Amino acid sequence: MSLLDEFVAMRGGVQRIAALCSALPVDEIMLARKLKHVGAAISARFEQTLQTHDLVEADFSVLMQLFGSPGRNASPSELCGLTAQRPTNMTRIGDALVRKGLATREADPGDRRRIVLRITARGERLARTLLPQLSAEVSRIFSGLGDTQRRQLDTLLQKLAATLDTQSEEQDR
Predict the structure, then answer these.
(1) For residue range 100-112, what is the model confidence (pLDDT) as tens digits?
(2) Buried b vs exposed e over 87-110: b needs ≥16 C-beta within 10 Å?
(3) pLDDT tens-digit series, residues 105-136
(4) Comparing C-alpha atoms, which of 67, 70, 74 is closest to residue 126?
């Protein structure tokens, strides 16, 4: 079933539920569901490329953060925030990258209590190999949008993120 077919089926289900609960914000629910499904479809496209290198998207995301960091290293807690991963999953990702020889795990020389992951030369070579492939995939994914539409989408996603940040801050008080 195509994504567009899934959206039609989802809307039907949401509308049936809305008939039972009149206060249901159908359009907003559909936007949230579409974001989730489109994100999953993009991840699935990346996974096709990554699986040939025995990686999943979360592993690749952490590898890229290490590759792009000033010292080619970061602590697991820093990486959690940058990659939208939970600490328990970050432990699994770190273990996988270390096991594959793509990163090392060591104590921070400035603070022995702090652990850092550091990308290895092998990890850097893999990053340089994968970047052109995934860059081409990203370009294909967004090829249906013009420059103005991509900027608009970016602006809208930034606004949505700001709203979520504000609401999270309010909940934390």
Answers:
(1) 999 999 987 777 8
(2) eeebeebbebbeebebbeeeeeee
(3) 998 777 788 889 999 999 999 999 999 999 99
(4) 67
- State pTM to two decimals: 0.81
**Residues written for the chain:** 173
Q: Contact at 8 Å (CB) between 83 and 68?
A: no
| Per-residue buried b or exposed e for 3-32, using 16+ beta carbons within 10 Å of the residue's own CB | eeeeeeeebeebeeeeeeeeeeeeeebeee
Looking at the DSSP assignment, which residues form a beta bridge with residue 119? 103
**Measured CA distances, 91 to 32, 70, 84, 114, 141 (Å):** 29, 22, 13, 14, 31
What residue type is 18 in one-letter code?
A
